[in-house]
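Sample pair:
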Amino acid sequence: AGGEMREVTVSFADLRGFTALAERTEPPKLLALMREYFDLMDVPIHEHRGTVVEYVGDEVMSLFGAPDDVPGHAEAAGRAALDMTRLLAAQHPKWAAQGFPRLEIGVGLHTGNMMVGFIGSSLRQKYGALGDNVNLGSRLQGLTREFGVTLLASGAWLEQAGGYFRVRPLGDIQVKGRTARVDLYEVRGLAAEPSPAGEEALLAAWEDVLAAQREGTPARLRAALDRCLAIAPLDGPALRLSMLSRGDKAGHGT
C-alpha cells in the first residue's frame, strides 16, 4: 500500500530507568509489569483518538491525525500525554507494594508533515510514519532527561495546540541535521485547570531567567535561577541552567 504526506502530531513516551529495572527484575515479573504498563498507556492514547504505531522496548510511539483524520490532533496528543502521566502516578502505590520503584516517563511531542502509511518488507508491514519530523519528535523525548521535565514539545506543536495548555518556554536548540533552531516548551498542564501552589511565582522567576539570558547579564541570571530554586528546589530546567552557568556541564542542544 502507498503512503501519503500528512500533517500529524507524533508522540514518543519513554519509561525512565527501564534498563536498571530490567536488570534487577525476574523476566516473568518484568513482562507482567510491562504488559500492565502498556495497557495503562494505551488508554489515553485511544481515548484521544490516537494510534499506537510501535512499541520499541519500553517506548510507546503514537500518532494523532493518522490513519484517522483527527481535527485538533496537537491538542489531542497533549491531553493524552498529560493523562498518561496522571495514570502512571496513580498506579505508583500498587506497584510500590509489589516492590517496584516509582515509574516515570518522558514524553516528546511534535507536529509537522510526515510520510504515513504501511512500512516494512513484502513479508511484513505495519502502519507508521517516516521523515525528519518523526526524528525530531524522538529527539524531544530524549531531551526530557537533559531538561529535567516530563513533557517536552516543539513550537510547531504549540502553534497547533492553541491556548489549551500551560507551558513554559525553555528557549531554542540546534538539532543535528536541521538548519533552523527548534523552540522548546515544557507542557505543565491544562490552561483550564487551577495552577498548582507556587507555579505562578516559579514562572514569574523563570521569565526573569529568560530575560537575563537575552540581555547576557550573568548576575541577574544567577539571582533569577536562585529564586526559581528557592521556590522549586528540584526544578529541572533551573537546575540545568544553574549547572551550565557554573560550567559544570558543557554544551547546549543536541
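The longest helix spans residues 73-97.
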